[in-house]
Design a protein that fits this description.
With 57 residues, the protein is an all-alpha fold. The chain has a domain of 35 residues. It has two helices and no strands.
């Protein structure tokens, strides 16, 4: 990774290292990711429910 010479990539990697060391940031990222997954699950369930309703009609 030290061989990366592209400055924007170096900055991004440094930011990732900083965030990885921050326990609060990791916790918030985990909570955010779980919320996204839960939202996607709710949408999927609603779509599946709609398909079942159409078949029953």
């Amino acid at each position: 990774m030290d061989s990366i010479t592209h400055v924007p990539i170096q900055k991004a990697m440094n930011r990732i290292k900083q965030l990885s060391a921050d326990e609060d940031a990791k916790r918030l990222a985990f909570v955010h990711e779980r919320a996204l997954h839960d939202g996607a699950s709710l949408i999927y369930d609603a779509m599946q429910s709609k398909k079942v309703e159409k078949k029953a009609s």
